[in-house]
Every structure is written in C-alpha cells, then in structure tokens.
Amino acid sequence: MNESISSMIVPGVLWALVVFSVLSWGLLLIKSAQYLRLKTQNKQFAKAFWAAPDLLTAAEHSSQYPGSLARIANSGFEAMAVDETPRNTQQLAHTINRSDRLERNLRQQIQKERRALEAGQAILASIGSTAPFIGLFGTVWGIMEALQSIGASGSASLETVAGPIGHALIATGVGIAVAVPAVLIYNFFLRRLKLAVADMDDFAHDFDALAQRSAFSINRQAIASKHSQAVREAS
C-alpha cells in the first residue's frame, strides 16, 4: 500500500504542474479577452460621453453603454440625482453634501471595477510562487526513491545512479517551466490593471471637475427620470 502511494507521488506532482500550466494559459486567454473588450467598450463610451451636448444626454449614455467608465459615470449621476432634502432624521445618506457623496460613489465604483479586473491574478501569483517548490518536492521524493532502490540493488555504478536521479530532476524542470510563464503573465496583467485603474481615476477626476464646474446646477429630477427610462429601455 505504502509502495503504491509512493510510486504515485512523482506522477501526481507532474500532473498537478500540468494542471497549473493549463490554468495559466487559460487565464491568459480569458484576461486578454476581458481587457480587450473593456478597452473597446470604454473607448466607445468616452467618445459618446464627451460628445454629448449636455449632462442629461451624458447621463442617458451612461445607462446605455457597457464598460467600466460607463458604470463609473452612472454611479456619479446617481449621486447627483439624489434629493438632498431629508425626509426624516434617519436618512443619514442625505446628510452628506453633494461633493462628498459624488466622490464617495466614484471611489467605490472604481474599487468594484478594480476587484473585477483583479479576478484570477491571485491564481497566477500562487502558481508562479509555488510551482518550483512543488516540482522540487517531486524531485526530492524521486531521488529518495531512487537511492532506496539503488541501496536495495547493491549496485552504485554511474548508470544505475544517473538514470533514476535524472528522471527525478524532470519534476523540478517542469515546475520552473510552469512558474516562469505564470509570473510573466501575472506581471503583464498587473501592468494592464494599473493602467486601467489610472484611466478610471482620470475619468472620475474629470467627471468630478465637470460636476463642480456646473455647481451641481442640473435638474436632478430630470436626470433621475431620464436615467430610469434609459435603464428600462436597456433591460
């Protein structure tokens, strides 16, 4: 029983590394498609948003277009459309002034978008950091088995020693081969994440400046009505 389990450890390590490799390359394809789709959506929305003649039209675009920038703008318009007149003393959200409420909504939406873009990167980081050690574990176990078998056979020739130990070293090589692409893919998408968040921060800053410049002197009831209508049409 113990011998059968022991003989399955090295193949099990190799199969685990193969699974890790498939995960890494699969995440590369999935994340690449995610960022490409997001870039296209944000480009289309930004063009429509800044070409809008007024904030009411821009609010309608924010509900009709997909993408992170559209969702950020949507959260900003929701903050601007809130009636500041408190109906009772328990509505604490109404006691926050418009500028702080807008900034909070924009910041919270950026954090949501960031978490969505970070999905899968923890897996890549884990694979990149653990794959070499998993491969090394398979190598150590394989060398231990090889030495036990050499000791049992009583032969210490070069051919007897080199074959099993060389076979055991394959696990370390596979572990490194799996870890290097995972680290490179992780760093690539980490850079893309920073750029995407920077773009969202820039848009949020511009949106806040636009709201401040208008002194929030827009018809909030009209924005709320138009926003609700756009949501119904989109659904």
TrEMBL record:
| GO CC, any one term | plasma membrane
| Family to which this protein belongs | Belongs to the exbB/tolQ family.
**Is Transport included in the keywords of this UniProt record?**
yes
Q: Name one GO biological process term.
A: protein import
Q: Transmembrane region positions?
A: 12-30, 122-144, 164-190
Please give, as recorded in its UniProt entry, the membrane topology of this protein: Multi-pass membrane protein
Keywords in UniProt for this one?
Cell membrane, Coiled coil, Membrane, Protein transport, Transmembrane, Transmembrane helix, Transport
The answer to whether UniProt assigns keyword Transmembrane helix to this entry is yes
InterPro entries attached to this UniProt entry: ExbB/TolQ_transport (IPR050790), MotA_ExbB_proton_chnl (IPR002898)
What range(s) does the MotA/TolQ/ExbB proton channel domain occupy?
A: 94-201
The parts of the chain that form a coiled coil are: 92-119
Annotated compartments: Cell membrane; Membrane
Q: What is this protein called?
A: Protein TolQ
Its primary localisation, in coarse terms, equals membrane
Q: Which organism is it from?
A: Pseudomonas graminis
